[in-house]
Structure formats: structure tokens, C-alpha cells
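Crash report, auto-generated. Payload:
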Amino acid sequence: MRRFLINGLLLLALSAGFLAWAQEVPYTELSPAMLEELNTKLREALAPLGPQPYKGVVIRGCVVRDGSYDIAVWLLKQSDFEELTGITVDIQLLEFEEKVMQQKVDFMGHTGMYDIVSVDQPQLGEYAEAGWIIPLDSFINDPRFPDPQINDIIPSLLDTCGTWNGKIYAFPGPSYGNLLGYRKDIFIAAGIVDWDGTPIPPVTWTEYLYYGRKIREMFPDMFAAVMQARKGEYLSYDVGTYLWEWGAGYINGCDVYYPEYPKYRVLWDTPQALAALKFYKQLYEELAPPETITYDIAGFVSAMQSGKVAMGVLIQEAVGTPLEDPRYSKVAGQMLYAPVPGKVNPDGSITRVSHIGGENVAINADSRNKEAAYLVARFLVGPELAAAYSYLGGKPFRYSHFTPEAIARYPWLAAQLHNIETGKARPKIPEYPQVSDIFSAAFHAVLSGQAELEPAMRAAAAQANALLAEIYGGK
Amino acid sequence: MGAFKWKALYWVILSVAFLPLVCSALLVLGTNIFLSLHDYTARTIATGAPFVGIANYSYALTDSRFLNALKVSFLFLVLCVVGETIVGVSLSYVFAKPLPRIISKGKVLIILPLAISPAAASLIWRWFFSTQYGIINFLLALIGIQGPDWTARPTSALFAMVFVDLWQWVSFTFAVLLAAMQGIPAEVYEAASIDGASEWTKFWKITIPFLKRSLFQIVLFRFALLLREVDKPLILTQGGPGMATETISYWIYRCYFWFSQIGRAAAMAVILLVIANIVCETFWTLRGRWQNA
Amino acid sequence: MPNMVLKTKKKLYYTMRITVALIALIAFGLPIMWVIWSSFKNLVDVIALPPKVIVPYQIDNYTRLLFRNHFDRYVLNTIVVAVTATAVALLLGYPAAYFLGRYRFRGNNALNYFVLSLFMAPPIIVALPFSVFFSRFRLLDTFAGMLTAHVTITLPLAIWLLQGFVSEVDVSIEEAAALDGATITQRMYAIVLPNIRSGFAATALLCFLFSWNDFLYGLILGPFRMKLLPAATIGLVSYAHIEWNVICAAATIIVTPALIVTFGLHNELVKGFRQFLR
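Recovered output after restart:
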């Protein structure tokens, strides 16, 4: 017994010794000058409120860990925000599924544990209708609080991610937007290059398929596509670009509107949707690793890191650090990015639709310090942090994120602005999670070879339509 | 006077212990039934839920997802129980007779997986089964087999779940049966040997009948415990691919948490409770019959 | 001649048995050892195949878990909940088990069945209404709430097991003590309890294990302050970057009591399981 205790104490001492050594300091690239600039802006914005208006208040938050929120939260804590306002900011960064669960338990229990929450774009309607988050309009229009500069937020994001039923419920946060990532070395080796030797990315899906097949022929071990096709919201997200570019969508009247179909009818069994899904399946079967259908973002990031994929349509979060870190990534320095390929229409035009969305900051209806929570939300994703945030690699959602320094560092940002402005997002009605689940279960079964495309999608559509008709029937 | 005092004391003591349990049970049953009779969803939490009678139940019983979950649970259950019994019986048979001391002492290792949290086990095996970093496919490749994408195909996903379950619960069968086997008197075996019986015959005609009762109880016990399978679908397969590994507890959990379909989830929970009760009844009756036999 | 054939046959069977036994030991024991071993490596080495042996070993994963991911709080929570739930179960359960095991009154059977059915109910059936009920009464994420949920796991188990152990003790010892004038309480605690010491330990052990290993209640009923270990692990399965070495470290932490129990107290463990089926 005594020996056990002694050993235990020794181990603890060792751990403590390693602790200091093991601490990493993140984001050392932030120069003191940038930090100072940030703080000046903060001071300016917060001046009208007076010194430490909310002294002693603790604001807890539950936001998703997507790489960008990490940066935003870190910046907020590094800056003088806490000193200037007196608020202690305690924001938890959680993985997506866990975040949703924590939030829902908090909401359903009305415990008000979290003052601010990050809401994924398609869940905005669910949260708003259930009364779990409150509209921000009263705060935005209140002259006491610093102006959130709504005009600085990219309108498509404000519309899809922040607004429900005409009211603003959340401040848009780091957006997704998909990009094509491709390998410089493979493209050069395969001869897919321009006259000056730089690799040419595919501009249309036709080209994508062509290049992909060529690469697979030349390098049989290499794959030419990778998707986040895991069953669940991942797959539902991933097919968005394809559905929209082919002329279909998710739910009529929500993300798109085609007058020939009634409102609140799902669109996955229309001829255009079936063509899009068929193409997706073809991409998967011909060009992607078979285990793609188990990939969430981590999955396809690690597939790309392992070097066995030559190109793929990536969600924005995957871009950047994970692929450029030479410790884990075999492709560091070889990745180039281009806008997502478009579909060629019969009249020769090209439809390119980027899939936007993101997690957005909202205030819990049960929060006991709504004003202080509003301040934290306003500044977490506000224009003051913008320059430093995008410089450190945070994904953009405001015009002020597209600074020359950021674009110099991340060349793909240049094209992204236009893509985000013209992008589409998933429906956000409260029933979306369930409808999405019906879709992903059905389509995932198709991809894994358990079902045929048409019958499965028709059956799923019938089920989803019945569900929607119960609630929206007749509207 | 003495007898009366006994009875009173008896009931007092039992109430103290059982009060929390009875209260919980009533609460559980009551809340589930109440929720299942109303249309509780994310929308209606705020505005108030209308009474819908048995609409949730009829929806559940005709919902293809729910029926699929029942089917998957049943399939999973049968595969697990059959697997555990066969492997468990074989293992305990192997260990029942003398072995070199090291190996004999090592049987402690077999019991180890049982003590582990199913969540931790699922996590561990998720790593081992992963196609990129997992050791299983690597080892298979060493002997020339191309390992499948475990969680990407329905059969292999189900197999992976069954495998993890076996890894944990064979230990249970093993632990229980080993002692039972060692209790079989050696003279019976010797008599059979003298009569010229082979190992196989001895196994079937002597060992199995002696263990019949324990086996029955193990099987039924496992039946009940397998209905609660949430950890593995959640961590290992997310119910995929398609709907191939969505067990019933997992589906109820999804409905409650992800779709906020609280009323429907409660109805399904009540149905599950009925099923669990039937299994428990069977276990109880058979146990009673064995005890009185 | 026939003797030689018999001898070789016996040898063959013996070798077969040893092989199977060895395979079993490796199959059951190796994965865990592997995980513990991997928890001391960094990510690049952990995901390397074939597995590397000579690597810079580190305990960063543990320090990170404990100090950055707040696992120290979760470990504390889980220990406290499991120990308290076990203590409550034994305290409340032993007297009940004594009476159930000793005296055959009407309703004995029904109560026994009730206890068993509680233990066999799938946790989701209980977790759902508990979470709704707790949310109404602000009991979510509190120690009291989590404890209540765990007691519904440990109390039935304790009663069921102890009742079996008690009924195994010879009645005559008690009758002798009763003749000497011992009261019920004295008989319960001074006579029967010492006799079922190892059974009592087995029960305590199983209660602790079942409470420690529970996943669903920790997931649904205690997301912030009362988070428990198994539920905390899914927070590590990131969707951007899976760090298997950290996950191995977390798994090792969760598995620790199981390890201690199995290597130190496996007799009690087996005894408990066998008692369950009586």
C-alpha cells in the first residue's frame, strides 16, 4: 500500500514537471502591432459604455471547435476585452455532435448554463421556433450598444445563417464554403498543366471527371476524389453543391424555389436531383476510396494528409493548417485551391454554386445576463477582431476579413468572396434535421450498395413529404 | 406479538430501500406514457403540446426506421448470443482442464475486457478497425487478406459490432461456466472414458447437460442486456452504413436528441419497455422453474 | 499399441488446448495493453504502421487531457458519483437484501422480480423521462440528479446480489445467536455480514464498475459540471483531426479501475457475476 502511494506521488511529480514543458502557445504569429491595433479598435468601440460596465459577470459559451472559433475565442481573451468590460469570458469549444447535445440539454432543462451558443446554419429554425434563442434586433437597434456593422457581414450569410422569419437571431460566424483542393505534384506529373507549367484545376465537372480518370489511369494507387460522405449531416451537406448546380435542391421554398413544385416538398426525387446524385455516386465509385462513406471532416483530411488523394472538394475548414502541417501531412506545400467546379448547362453557361453556411453566434433565451452575452457575441465575431482573425487563418464571413495581408497569406481567399456571395445554404426549418436524416440514411444506403438510387430516393422523398405535410400541409 | 413486530420491521426496512426505486419506476413509466400521448416536438415545447392519444404509437409501429431498428437489434442480439455461447463454452472447456501455470494464471486477462466501459471498448476498436490507422487490416494484409472497409459495408459493420460485443462478453460466459465446469465430478468423465467415449461425445453428453441451467440463464441475461446497445452504434458506426447498425436504443436516442421528437421517442421507449419486460418475465419464470426442479 | 495411440492423441489435444488458450489470452489481453502503450506515444508514431517500438515516449497526452481538456474534473466527478452510488446502494440495499433473503413473506417474489426488472431495463427508457423531469425541477447537471440516476443502477444490483449471498449463509448460526438474545440488527451486522464478507466485496465491486462504466446517464444528464468520463470521451472524437494517442490516453484513464479490479480482485469479480445468475 505504501509503495503504491509512493509510486503514485512520483508519477504525479513527473507529470507536473512535464506540464510546463508540454504547454503549447498557440498562434504565435500574431505580432504585437496587430494586437495593439485590435485593442485600439476595441477601446474605441467600447468607449461609450464606460469603464467595466458589466464587472463581475461571467459569460459562458458553447461553440463548435472548427478551427476558426478557436482563433476568435483566443483573440478575444488575448485582447483587452475582458478588462474593458469587466466580463469574464468562459467559452467551451466542443466537437459538433457533442456541442449540439450539450446545448439541447441546456435548453430543454432551462438551466441557462450557456449564455451564448453557436448554432449550425440548418438548425437555426429549430432553435428559433422552439424559443431557445432570442432575436437580436432589439440589441442591434439599441443605441447604447456598439454598432455591429451589419453591412460588413456578407449578405448571403446574414440571410441564410442569421435570419429566421424576418428577424436576426444570430450573428453569422466562420462560414463554410467549399473549395476544390488539388495536388500540385500529381497534376504536374500527370501533365495537367498550363502553357507555363502551372497545374490547371478543373473548372467544370466534366473536366473533373476527365482529369480524375486520367490520374487514376496513370497512378492506380492514387484516388481522384474524396468526400465527407459519412451518414448523417455530413452526407446531407456534401451533396448540396451537386443538387443546386444540377437544378434541384433540398426542400422547395426553403433553399430554392421552383414554381412547378408545391412549397415544402423535398426535391431529391426530381429528375435533376436524381441526375446529380447519380453523378455523385459515379464520382464515389470511380474516383474515391471506398471508405469515403465513413469520412467526416477528420476522415477526409486524414485521407488527403496521407497523400493518396489527388484532388477533392473540401469544406473550407479542412483547408489550411491540417494539410500544411508537415508533422502529420505528407502533402504539406503541395496543396493548391480553386473554386468548386461548376456544371455545364445545355446553353453553354456554367452554374457554379458554393455551399455556404456556418456556425453562428446566438444568445440563449434562458441566459441571466443577456446584455453582457450580447456584447460578447457582438465582439467575438465583430469587425474589430477581423484583421487579426483572418490573418491567423480564420474563415471569413465579413468583408473586413478580406484584408491584403490575409489574401497574401491565403491566396484562395481571393476567389472565395464571390463564391460566398453567390452561394446557397441548406434549409433551416425546424423539421430539417429529421428530413436530412431520412435523406442521408437513404442515400448512404445507395452509396454503400444496399439500395438502388431511384426507388430509394423516391421512398425517402415520400416519407419526408408526409412528414412535412403533417406540419405545413396546405401552405 | 413477535411475529407482528417482524412483519412491521420487515415492511419498514423494505420501504426505505425500495422507496427510491419505486418512485423512480413510477416516474419513468408515468413520464414516458404521458409524453407519448402528446405531440411533443421542438416546435410544441414552447407553445404547448396537444393530446394525440395513440397517434405516436401507431406512427412508431408503422415507421420503417423503427421496424428496421427492431430488426437490427434482433439480428445483433441473436448473433451476439450465439457467438458468445459458442466461444464462451469452448474457451471454458479449454481452460477447465490443467494447463501450464503461466497460461492458467493468464486467464485473468480474459476477464479484463468485461470490466471496461463499453464506450471505451467501442473507442478502442474504432481505432483498431479503421482502414487507415487500424491494426486489424494491417495484420490481415500481413497474411495476404485485403481487409474490408469495416464500417463502410453493412455486413462488416454489423460484424465489427458483434466482434466488439463478443470481445467483452465472452468473458462473462467464460467466468461463469468455468467454475461450473470445474464442479463437474471427474469420476463421470472417467467412467465415460472407460466405456470408450470420445472427447466429443463426452463433451456433448456430459458437459453440456451439466451446464444447461447456467447456459439458459446466461442467454436470457444477455438478451436483456443487449437491448440497451447504444454505445457501439454511437461510437463505432453511427448507425451506418445506411441503417444497417441502428439498434433500437440508438434510434430512440436519435429521435429524442437530434430530432427533438420527444413524444415519438417516448412511445418507442414504452414499446421497448414492453419487450424488455417480456424477456425479463421469461428469465424469471425459467429461473423459478430451475430452482424448484 | 493402443496405449501409444491414446498417448499421442492426448498430447495432440493438450497442444491444441494450449494454442487455443494462448490465442485467447492474446486476443483478450493484447488490445488493452496496446492502447496503454500507445497512450504514451505522439500522434505520428501512433498512426504509423507497422507499429514503431523505439519512439520518444511522452506523457503529454495525459497532461493535456488532465489540464487542458478538464479531464481531472471528470475523473473526480466519476469517482465521486460511483463511490457514492455504491455506498448508498450498499447502505440501503443490505437491510432490504437481508430481509428478502432470509424471510419468505408474501410479496417476496414480486419484489425480487421488480428489482430484477429495474436492472434489466434499457437505460434509454429511464434516461429520457429523467432528463425531462430533471429539467423541470432544475436537477439537470447537479450531483443529486446524477447520483439518483446512478443509484437506480446500483441499488437494484446490490439488492439482487446481496440477497443471494445472504440466503447462502447457514440459518443455524443465526438461530443460535437468536437464542443467545441477539437482536435483529446485531444479527444483520455482526453475524451475517462478516460471513458474507467476500460476497459483500463482490457486490461493492460490481456496483462501482457498473456505475463507473455507465455511458448514457453521463451523456444525457450531466453535460457541463457533472460530466462523467465515458461520456467525455466522445468529445475527443473530433471531426477535424482525430488524435488517436489522446484517445488512447483517455481510454486508459477510463480503464484504470477495471485494470485494478481485474488484476487485484478478479476472484471477487467472478464471484459477483456467478451470484447474479443464482
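Post-recovery validation: The mean pLDDT of chain C is 81.
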